[in-house]
Amino acid sequence: MSGIDALPPLRDVIATHGLSARKSLGQNFLLDLNLTAKIARQAGDVTACDVLEIGPGPGGLTRGLLSEGARRVLAIEKDPRCLSALAEIADAYPGRLTVIEGDALEIDPLAHLTPPIRVAANLPYNVGTELLVRWLTPPTWPPFWESLTLMFQREVAERIVAPPGSKTYGRLAILAQWRADARIVMHLPPSAFTPPPKVSSAVVHLTALPEPRFPADAAVLNQVVAAGFNQRRKMLRASLKGIAPNIEDLLVAAGLKPTDRAEQIPLEGFCALARQVAAARAA
Fold this sequence. Notes:
Layout: H1 10-17, E1 29-30, H2 33-42, E2 50-54, H3 60-67, E3 72-77, H4 83-92, E4 97-101, E5 117-122, H5 128-136, E6 147-153, H6 154-161, H7 171-179, E7 180-188, E8 193-194, E9 201-208, H8 218-230, H9 236-239, H10 247-253, H11 267-282
Parallel strand pairs: 2-3, 2-5, 3-4, 5-6
Antiparallel strand pairs: 1-8, 6-9, 7-9
Helix pairs in contact: 2-3, 8-11, 10-11
């Protein structure tokens, strides 16, 4: 036997290596290999791809990605207790798994990856949103990744795919939907994890667009969106007054009502306003 068939069940792995989940590391382990294989399949055909995984823990998703034929998996793990368990997976898939010990927020993985690259991870809750924002805001676009298949708390997942007018619509939705197609592909209850978290989870799949959906300067768009949603209950003419002295004129020129609120403005409207603001500053 080889590959996943030669490896013990994850509960045995956790017991053997003493891998009780640590809240301080945002750990909630997914032990059902049928579920981890299903998540791996949401990443699409990975047979010709390198896959970046953050926070593999005992390696459930890692095993799923490798058994689905990933050309190579680069796993970044902060918890040194998990390294011996991951080494057993590497032995079962010779030459196809590389593990780096360290903090994903501090490690540049690109030196260890060969395009095409996809990202798949059951992200630790305490760093998930920050990593997503980094992946969506590189200095140049398209990014290094073709797609992201990521587990989040359900509330965060809903914020990523939220439409205008919904209570979860905000900066994260605009950031994601400006440069990617984003959709929720799986829901998981707390009982799927060990230990069970207090919230439900969901897997979001994001596919990078070749270029942003609407033209806009990224820095200006981010500034406009951040200001609008920092005071989301205020009208735009009030929440954005620090952006430009003539903000009402710029709103009208962008086809927006100064009396609207940020949650009412679609992505295209924010991009139009960002173009107006950039033009006004350049004049």
